[in-house]
Amino acid sequence: MLAAPRVEAETAAGCSGSANLSASTSVAxxxxxxxxxxHFRVHLPAGYSKNRATPLILAFHxxxxxxxxxxxxTQISRLPAIAVYPEGLRSPEGPRSWQSAPYANAKADDxxxxxxxxxxxxxxxxxxxxRVFAVGRxxxxxxxxxxxxxxxxxxxxxxxxxxxxxPQGQRGCEHAPPVSRIEFHGTADPIVPYDGTRKFxxxxxxxxxxxxxxxxxxxxxxxxxxxxxxxxxRTDWYLCRPLGIMISHVRIDGGTHRWPGSTDAGxxxxxxxxxxxxxxxxxxxxxxxxxxx
Length: 293
Prior knowledge:
The protein has 293 residues and is α/β, with parallel strands linked by helices. Helix content is 19%, strand content 25%. Keywords: Carbohydrate metabolism, Hydrolase, Polysaccharide degradation, Secreted, Signal, Xylan degradation.
């Protein structure tokens, strides 16, 4: 496990208070947002202290999943960070989903839900406000990308796995400030195809096209590409604007829609890497203000 990065922490109000939270445990929480009761889980890492600012990760599940399920198979709660697992609302079609998708519940204001979660967790736990991150899978990955746009300055970086980038979840984001992003995607993903699709009735862009948009937005210089596993190629754009912004894409040849390294992934190509570990390594590189930008 990687140690938390050694940077000066910008602490939250919870560092001087005390809430009913214990290290190495997960607890359920509720909050009412625009008249709708919403649910989320909070996990404090081993060794957590209310006297030491700790990074915070908000982790958004995929369509049809539950927060507890996402916590179990991603292994994000093993990282040295406070982990929060919001739960999506049921859509008219039944499965739980997020507002960035065309099939989402019309009452889902997940941007407001995220604001409420940040307010609550910062009041109850000792959060390093300069080290707040978002992670999402599939439809949840699309939401994480949307949050980077709609809540500028709130997230130091965003990580997405098999993300679904529906056009309505990106409207108005063309001129948003750049945010460090990493995206993992399998070339054999049948749910969110790597080369894009319209076959499900919802247009989805090709993943290289989406990543290319982030690169152009951040004005990045040519990337460094390397193979990190037999079927996995990682491309990193290190030199972007402002200095310190980084864009990364992890292409898994033959990989499917599973979370790489998940407890239920089996020995498929996507299981030869561990997404949670690589995401934490990426987050550890994000140090807001270090470059004076």
